[in-house]
Amino acid sequence: MVIKKVGVLGCGLMGSGIAQVSAGAGYSTVVKEIADDFLKKGLSSIEKSLGKFVEKGTITRDQRAETLGRLKGTTKFEDLGDCDIVIEAITENLQLKRETYATIDKIVKPPAIFASNTSSLVVTEMMTATKRVDRFIGMHFFNPVPLMKLVEVVGTITTSKEILDEAMKFAASLGKVPIRTSDRSGFVVNRLLVPYLLDAIRALEEGVGSVEDIDNGMRLGCGYPMGPFTLLDFVGLETTYYIANIMFEEFREKRFAPPPLLKRLVLAGHHGKKTGRGFYDYSDPANPKPLY
Ligand code: 3HC
To answer: Is 173 marked active-site?
Structure first.
C-alpha cells in the first residue's frame, strides 16, 4: 500500500505538530478536532510554527503556503474516510481512545493503518476496539514535534511485518528517524526518561540540590539541552504524573512510582510552563524563576 493521504485525530500540542510535519512532507493531511475553537487554536499554532521556520530561513514563504494548502481542518470523523493512515493524538484516556477507534474503524477504509501517538498506554488495548489487528501500531512523536527527530514505531503481537515496515518508511518520509519498539508501557524513551525525571524530584526532596543546581548539573555536566526540572515543566507535570502512574501499574517497580512532591504539585494545579508555575515560576517567561 502507498500512503498518500494522512488523517490526524486531535489538533492539540502533539496532533498539531504531527499534522504540520505530515503536510510539510507533502502529504494531503486532514486533522480532526472535537470543536471549532480547538481546531482554530491548533491550526494557528501550526501557522506560528511555520512562521518561525520562514523567519529562520528553514523553509520559504512558498513552502509555508504549500504546507498550509495541503492541510484541512475538520470536526467530522467522515472526513477521515479515505485516509491511508490515521494517527491519533487525542487525550490520553483509554476509554475515550477505545470509543474513538471503534467509531473510526467503521468509517475509515479497511486497508488504512491506525497509529496511536500514546506515550504510555498499551497499544494492544486500543487495537482490540477495532477489527484491524494486523494494521494497528503505535507512532510516538516527541515534543516539540516539528523539531524533535525521533518517532518510536510500536508493533503489537498481531501487527504484520509489512505494516511495520511501511510505518518505518512513512516516519522516515516525514523527516524523522524511526526506531522500532515493542508494546511495553513507555516504549524505549519514556522507560528511561521517566525514572530519570522522577529521580530528579526525589533528589530534590532529599536535599541533594536545588532545582537550579540539579538542572545545571545535567545540562552542563551531561550536555542535556534542558535540565530535568525544565523538561518536567515543558512536558507538563500532570502528563509525567499520568505516564508514571501507568508505568507503575504495568511494572510495579519503585522507579516508576511518582514521588509525593510531584503528586502535590499536580493536585495544586502547578502543571509547569502551560499553567505559569511548576518547578519554576514563568511570570516572566524569558526568565523563569526556580521555586524549590
Ligand atoms: N516550531 C518551530 N520552531 C520552534 C518550535 C516549534 N514548535 N519550538 C521552538 N522552536 C524554535 C525556537 O523559536 C528557537 O528559535 P530561535 O533559535 O530562532 O530562537 C529554536 O527553535 C530553538 O529553541 P529555543 O531557543 O527555545 O531553545 P533550544 O535551543 O533549547 O531548543 C528544544 C529547543 C529543541 C526544545 C531543546 O531545548 C530540546 O531539545 N529540549 C528537549 C526536548 C525534549 O526532551 N523533548 C522530549 C520530551 S518527552 C516527550 O515528548 C515524550 C512524551 O511522551 C512525554
So the answer is: no
Q: Name the closest-CA residue to atom 28, ligand 1.
A: 225
Cβ–ligand 1 distance for 149 under 6 Å, the answer no
Specify the ligand 1 atom closest to the Cα of 193: 48
Q: How far apart are CA 74 and CA 168, in angstroms?
A: 27
- Per-residue confidence of the chain (292 residues) as pLDDT tens digits? 789 999 999 999 999 999 999 999 999 999 999 999 999 999 999 999 999 999 999 999 999 999 999 999 999 999 999 999 999 999 999 999 999 999 999 999 999 999 999 999 999 999 999 999 999 999 999 999 999 999 999 999 999 999 999 999 999 999 999 999 999 999 999 999 999 999 999 999 999 999 999 999 999 999 999 999 999 999 999 999 999 999 999 999 999 999 999 999 999 999 999 999 999 999 999 999 999 9
Q: Is 119 a catalytic residue?
A: yes
Beta bridge partners of 96: none
Mutate to test the pocket of ligand 1, among 148, 222, 231, 246 (most ligand atoms within 8 A of CB): 148
Q: Which of 16, 92, 116, 140 is catalytic?
A: 140
d(CA 272, CA 274): 6
Catalytic: 88? no
- Check pocket membership of 119 for ligand 1, CB cut-off 6 A: yes
Q: Which residues contact 41 (CB under 8 A, 6 or more apart)?
A: 11
Q: Domains in the chain, please, with CATH?
A: 5-182 (3.40.50.720), 191-290 (1.10.1040.10)
Q: Which are the contacts of 264, defined by CB distance < 8 A and separation ≥ 6?
A: none
Q: Whose CA is nearest to atom 6 of ligand 1?
A: 49
Q: Structure pTM?
A: 0.95
Burial class (CB within 10 angstroms; exposed 0-12, middle 13-18, buried 19+) of 244: buried
